[in-house]
């Protein structure tokens, strides 16, 4: 299963709202996961600058 999000794992509790449910979801997803966090500027910004799209 692949899950992609723009929200950091630390922000999921606030996004889900209910602490117990957030804990249950995160326990099952994060425990056995491989996380890749990308940093830096958005590549979309460069693409739009080159093509002139907005």
Question: Quick recap of the structure?
Answer:
The chain has 54 residues and is mainly α. The chain is built from 3 helices and no strands. It has one domain.
Helix and strand arrangement:
Layout: H1 12-16, H2 19-30, H3 43-51
Record keyword descriptors for this entry.
3 helices; elongated; 54 residues; mainly alpha
Give a description of the structure.
With 54 residues, this protein is mainly α. It has one domain. The model has no long low-confidence stretch (mean pLDDT 79).
Helix tally equals: 3
- What class do helices, strands and sheet pairing give? mainly alpha
Strand content: under 5%
Q: Find the count of extended strands (DSSP E, 2+ residues).
A: 0
* Fraction in helix: 40-55%
Distance between the terminal alpha carbons, to the nearest Å?
Answer: 33 Å
Overall pLDDT level = 79
Shape: elongated
Largest sheet entry: none
Order of helices and strands: HHH
Radius of gyration, CA atoms, in whole angstroms:
16 Å
| Number of separate structural domains | 1
